[in-house]
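Form 7-S
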Amino acid sequence: MAKTDWRLTDVVKPEDMNNLGQEINDLRSDLSNIDVPPATLTKPGIVQLSSATDSEVEDRAATSKAVKEAYDRGSKGIDAATNAKAATDVLAGTVATQLAQKAPLSNPGFTGTAWVNGNEALHKGNMKSILEIDPTTNLVQVTVGMGKQFATIQAALDSLKKFNAGPRQIRVSPGHVEPNMISIVGFIGGSITIQSDTFDNFTVQNTVYLNNNTATIYLDYITIEGGNIQAQNCNSLFLSGVTQRSGTGLNVSNSSLIYVNYCEFSNLFRALTFNSVALATLMGVKGTGNTTGIISGGSIVMLGNQTTITGTTPQEKYGGGQIFG
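Output:
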């Protein structure tokens, strides 16, 4: 052991230096052999820094860069939703002002039954209305099916004006089969609802395509066969009672708010895909036999109650996408 009681009159001997060097070497060896385990959620330890924003590991700590990237992505989504809502509010105010300047259908200048094409009332004597307008709610309603106003959903959509501050509703006879693609593009303001007259689904044998809509879109009680639902650049999209058991599944991109309620997506290659979606909320969504259940690319996906959608790969995340719940 090295000498520790040195005095000014002592003479340093070689063995004193050797003992001191030996103790330094022993200390270095002891420090090198200290075993510090990796940190866990319950025990302290070594933690590695990481700048990844799409990792699920729990033994690494996020850097400021990773936190800022996640924050920036969330902020962009919130800004997109805020801007879309502001644009819709401005348009709704403009359209409401224009509608207030129109003569109401009850104006004495109208006689007989008002015939409505789009949202404009044209006097046609007693001809049956093509569109029915509820004077209390400004609801524009059309019907589709055998013996109804329109034979196809697409024809009903084509009859609607692109700009409208109020609700528009297409009621489809249960059992109706739509053979061709449905295109819902460029509708601004208000809302559009496509739903069955009852809780019995009607069938679409092709793709439902949505693009560039600030109008809120509701798709209710639809069975998709031979196609899928593709939506991009939409403000708000609500799906309820939708069933799909073949094809590629729901695919939504560059949109603000998506709500999927009590739907089934089974035996699909990709059941649900969200790419650059500010917020997608799933409630009561089920599905089995999928290759991939849920994909989140740069999106925030919230899984609500009774959501049990599975796949060979249950979830896939990339580009900072997150799935919670």
